[in-house]
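Hi team, as promised in this morning's meeting, here are the two structures we talked about. I've kept the exact order from the run log so nobody has to guess. The first one is mostly here for context; it's the second one we should focus on when we meet again. Sequence first, then the predicted structure tokens.
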Amino acid sequence: MVVNKSKSAFRTIAEVAEELGVATHVLRFWETKFSQIKPMKRSGGRRYYRPDDVELVKTIKYYLYDKRYTIEGVQKLFKEKGVKNLLGEEIQKDFFEPRDTADSLDAHTQQMLFSLQEQLRTLKSELAEALEKSKQ
């Protein structure tokens, strides 16, 4: 089943497996061997691969299947040369580095976000109280 999605769309594990020509259990196994593979997981454990995740698993597949490296060999290659260097400029800048967005926001936006956080905390506590009352 081929689905036409934009390059920036998230993909399910089944879509990525089909695109790469590997089974889904292979991708899950690679996640255990390569800490760099971090698909987003939603409720029920469903995995959604970002475009950068897809590029990363394509690179892993290339070294394992085409270049005939062992898993340990690819891990060593990643460690020595760096994943960013192997993936090239296609990778998003923030894929491997945590962002500190608070520094890049203006004071008004920071204050607005702080206010929203407070409102969410209040709503959370009100919901918890309502749930507790409904149990009684």
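And here is the second protein, the one for discussion:
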Amino acid sequence: MSDTKKILVVDDDPDCLDQTAAMLQATGHELILASSQAEAEELLLRHQPSLAVLDLMMEEMDSGFVLCHTIKKLYPDMPVILLTGVTAATGMSFKSPDPRVSRWVEADVMLDKPVRPESLRSTVAKLLKE
């Protein structure tokens, strides 16, 4: 790994936040943790992370989407990973071959919860070009 980068991790569930952080500690990067969309928006301006890992549903059902749009507006090149339990809970998937859907979502990658540690770490490495 060439240098330490900052990874913003956002989840309103403290257990999920801790689990995601534990998975990413092995990357050697600095982790910036937030438990809400508002807290994450403050930290974005203060720290300008290299990558963000966001829960899809937080305070509001669309908090992850809204935060992703905010990130892409501020930092268009910052990779964003959205983690979601929606598919497991409802069977509904946001993965679509339709390019209009992917443009609307704006996340670089969507991963279903529970995410496997090696899958998350390899996705982070790929997006950070490590």
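Starting points for discussion:
Residues 14-25 form the longest helix (12 residues).
Residues 6-127 form a domain with the Rossmann fold fold (CATH 3.40.50.2300).
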